[in-house]
Write a structure and sequence with these properties.
The chain is mainly alpha-helical and 166 residues long. It has helices spanning 65-79, 86-106, 111-149, 151-163.
């Protein structure tokens, strides 16, 4: 038996509690169960606010069509960076960069947006390098071909006649 006052376990048939000395009633054979605690309300975290507009930041927003298009354009700009397609690469890279930047400003900012942003920069840079290398190697190649055919010598001779170099 358990004492109603202090909860101490006593032998069956005891008249007084050995813990507090209070008389034990015979009907008090089993302890009364404690009531179950009341359920606590679930607390939702406050939404993060967009600092620029004071509106809740979208949580787990999916990529938009613009983000996917910018990502694809960034990949194509990285692939088309050599030769005569370098101008296409520069254009697509800049477009991908601008589209991803606009999505980041709107707060979409998924990982795909960041990838499109980086691919746009890399693609435009590679296209510019390919264009410069194409121009340099093309001019060099044209000069070598002209020297081998004698066209450059004719050019220098015509300058001698015009300006009378001595």
């Amino acid at each position: 038996m358990f004492c109603k006052k202090c909860g101490t376990e006593n032998e069956d048939g005891a008249k007084f509690c050995r813990g507090c000395g209070e008389p034990i009633e015979a009907a008090q054979a089993a302890p009364t169960p404690e009531p179950a605690p009341a359920p606590q309300p679930t607390i939702q975290p406050a939404p993060q606010m967009n600092a620029q507009y004071g509106q809740p930041q979208p949580q787990g927003q999916k990529s938009t069509g613009v983000t996917i298009a910018a990502f694809v354009m960034g990949i194509v700009s990285c692939v088309c960076c050599c030769g005569c397609t370098s101008l296409i690469s520069i254009g697509l890279g800049i477009a991908a960069f601008i589209m991803a930047l606009n999505d980041k400003k709107k707060g979409v900012g998924t990982g795909l947006t960041t990838a499109a942003f980086i691919l746009g920069i890399v693609g435009a840079s590679l296209g510019l390098i390919g264009l410069i290398m194409g121009l340099v190697t093309g001019a060099f190649t044209a000069t070598i071909e002209g020297l081998s055919r004698g066209d450059i010598d004719d050019l220098f001779r015509s300058y001698e006649r015009i300006y009378r170099f001595r």
